[in-house]
Design goal:
The protein is mainly alpha-helical. The protein contains three helices and two strands.
Length: 99
Amino acid sequence: NGLMNSINYKNFLYEKWKKSKNRKNQTGDSELYEKYKNYRKKLRALIKSAKNMFYSKKFSNCQGNSKKTWELINELRGKSISKSKCSFLVNGSLVNDRR
């Protein structure tokens, strides 16, 4: 995945800059920091555009169906209905009833 490789490279740049810091030079190598900062800025914009494309594609698949659109909105908000039933172990017996 291209995004994962970019994130790993950003982390590599960060570690390289952190290792350049020492007692004499507490801010580290300024060239490494600028390289890291510029890469981080570009990566952030890339991730934002990838998220926008992903969600716009999801919404275009639901176009014309308000029920599916609202299901998607609620899923994104974290309000999706759980389809799994909870079961608990009480006094050695399995309880599936909610009450």
